[in-house]
Design a protein that fits this description.
The chain is of the alpha/beta class. The protein has helices spanning 2-6, 13-45, 50-97, 102-108, 110-117, 119-152, 154-201, 203-208, 212-237, 240-265, 270-312, 373-378, 403-409, 424-428, 437-446, 450-453, 473-485, 503-516, 529-532, 552-558, 560-574; strands at residues 332-339, 350-357, 362-367, 388-393, 396-397, 410-413, 422-423, 463-464, 491-495, 521-525, 537-542, 545-550. The protein has a six-stranded mixed β-sheet with strand order 6-9-10-3-11-12.
């Protein structure tokens, strides 16, 4: 974990070192002031020498200005280093997330990744800022103050040694128990963020079913879990201040009692006792600051581990060495494929699938909910890898291709259509960033999207709201199909992506495909027989097993599942 985090300091190493340098100088200057104060009292005030009072006072003033300046620069560079470190952590996480396969994302969950990019990084940022400043300043301050105290009075300085031993044991015990709760609390943020994300993204459903109270209760429960853990952790940390106050008061009391005896005995001056009081406060305050740093570090350790997990995660899918960079055609072969989402540790969702599709064919896929239709097509563009068997595209195993190349040639319009903030043209050019306006218009004509785009006052420059909330479901689907067509793919997969358009528009889209992109292999997944019945062949899936694969007419004669679906839908239309 530490190596992973350290690598992200990068260009901010200089700022980190400058922070430590200025913090060290600040401590040295602060330590000199109590010593000068002793000289001012003993040699100036008590001796009645105003020249020395002015001299020592002027030196102390200059040192105080130097201390203030060093403190300013230490704080400035600490903020620069810690915020830069946090930016690098977020960038490293986000960059690696872009390489994740679907199974990697499933492992962490979307809300878990958001928490690691935000809350966890903030915790580590705060801890790093305290680490490079306070963790240099406090130990150095403690050591220097202890040395100066021993130089003044070794006997009285033993009071500080006893206090330090007591505080190390007490604060160490407190931190040990508090850390356990901090390790548990941050994963709970995932549940909290998940509750918020689900509520905001599904707010229309929440309101339409009047489930606001239920959602509030779910959020409050997640929030309450975090509150309880923090209360337990902070309840233990609450012993910090009483422990520190006990140590400070005990040291002052012992120092006053024994110091007075030494002054009377002539072995200690009033100025030296005054300095010892300053040094005891320096020592104990340094310990208090260190205890706060330990609190922050204990909180950030759990966050650091979670960040390192994301940065070090290796994608389940990667391009091979000497990867193929050309897809010959749109032919597809499934060779006795078994597939499960947990790779060998779960029930297969596809079993012994053996299919062979010619380039340019139009293939329909139909089956009940949960029959693994989407799982099947996800294997073509290698969004997942098979457990057993192989998938070939263009006569080559998909594992032999460069991933980006393969996914450019296999264009997928998924069930959950996503549009992004920006104009219609911006969204279309996700398919081809260099596409001209004419190419975008042609793709929209093929997808039957041109008719509604032209009705917008701004046409193709119409702004799309976040998530495409200002267009209908059918319009969103047609824009996504047009975007996929702009890739000029060898294989086009429509995963139930015309479910929100009427049957006439659906038929018009398929007719355009047959006329304009005859050499592209088209795979159409649908719940409606009308969407697939004109396909060259239709695949019937039943619980992850191929139940039938033939033309509409042949399946009507030989396949009971297909015939039942057709008759049920036909009867529904008549009624």
């Amino acid at each position: 974990m530490l190596k992973t985090l350290y690598r992200q300091i990068k260009q901010y190493k200089k700022a980190s070192l400058l922070t430590m340098m200025f913090a060290s100088i600040e401590v040295v200057l602060e330590i000199i002031i109590p010593m000068l104060m002793a000289y001012l009292i003993d040699d100036g005030i008590q001796a009645g020498d105003m020249n020395k009072v002015i001299m020592y006072g002027a030196i102390m003033f200059v040192i105080a200005i130097g201390t203030l300046t060093c403190g300013f620069f230490a704080g400035h560079y600490a903020a620069k280093a810690s915020s830069g470190f946090a930016a690098n952590l977020r960038d490293a996480e986000y960059t690696n997330i872009q390489t994740f396969s679907f199974s990697n994302i499933d492992k962490f969950s979307t809300t878990g990744l958001v928490t690691r990019l935000t809350t966890d990084v903030t915790n580590v940022q705060n801890a790093y800022q305290m680490l490079i400043r306070t963790c240099i300043r406090s130990p150095l301050n403690l050591i220097c103050a202890l040395i100066m105290a021993f130089m003044i009075s070794p006997d009285l300085s033993m009071i500080f040694v006893v206090a330090i031993i007591f505080l190390v044991i007490a604060l160490g015990t407190i931190m040990y128990f508090a850390t356990k709760y901090f390790n548990d609390v941050f994963p709970k943020y995932d549940d909290l963020n998940e509750s918020v994300e689900e509520n905001v993204s599904g707010i229309r459903v929440v309101k339409s079913f009047v489930r606001e109270d239920y959602e509030k209760e779910k959020f409050q429960k997640a929030s309450e879990n975090i509150r309880k853990l923090f209360v337990k952790a902070e309840g233990i940390l609450a012993f910090n201040n009483p422990t520190m106050i006990l140590s400070v008061d005990a040291c002052i009391l012992m120092l006053s009692w024994l110091g007075a005896h030494d002054i009377v005995g002539g072995t200690l001056t009033t100025g030296q006792l005054s300095s010892l009081f300053s040094y005891v406060m320096n020592i104990l305050m340094s310990l208090m600051m260190l205890s706060m740093v330990f609190v922050m570090i204990s909180m950030s350790i759990a966050s650091g581990r979670r960040i390192a997990e994301v940065i070090n995660e290796t994608s389940d899918l990667a391009s091979p060495e000497n990867a193929l960079t050309d897809v010959k055609d749109g032919s597809i072969d499934f060779n006795h494929v078994d597939f499960s989402y947990t790779h060998g540790d779960g029930t297969p969702v596809l079993r012994d699938v053996d299919l062979h599709i010619k380039s340019g064919e139009t293939i329909g896929i139909i089956g009940g909910t949960g029959s693994a239709k989407s799982s099947l097509v996800n294997l073509i563009s290698r969004l997942y890898d098979v457990d057993k068997g192989s998938v070939y595209v263009g006569g080559k195993n998909v594992k032999e291709y460069d991933l980006e190349l393969l996914r450019d040639e296999v264009s997928v319009v998924l069930q959950n259509n996503v549009l992004f903030s920006g104009t219609i043209l911006d969204n279309l050019r996700w398919g081809n960033e260099n596409a001209t306006l004419e190419e975008c218009q042609e793709a929209c004509r093929l997808a039957c999207a041109d008719e509604f785009i032209e009705r917008f006052p701004e046409g193709y420059n119409t702004m799309i709201a976040q998530g495409g909330s200002n267009v209908s479901g059918g319009q969103k689907q047609r824009l996504c199909i047009a975007r996929a067509l702009l890739k000029n793919p060898k294989i086009l997969i429509l995963d139930d992506s015309t479910s929100a358009v009427d049957t006439a528009t659906d038929a018009s889209i398929q007719k355009s495909f047959d006329e304009r992109i005859p050499n592209t292999t088209k795979i159409i997944i649908s719940q409606r027989v009308s969407s697939v019945q004109n396909a060259d062949r239709i695949l019937v899936l039943d619980d992850g097993v191929v139940n039938g694969f033939d033309s509409h007419d042949k399946l009507m004669e030989t396949n009971e599942i297909y015939r039942t679906i057709y008759e049920t839908q036909a009867k529904g239309k008549e009624e």
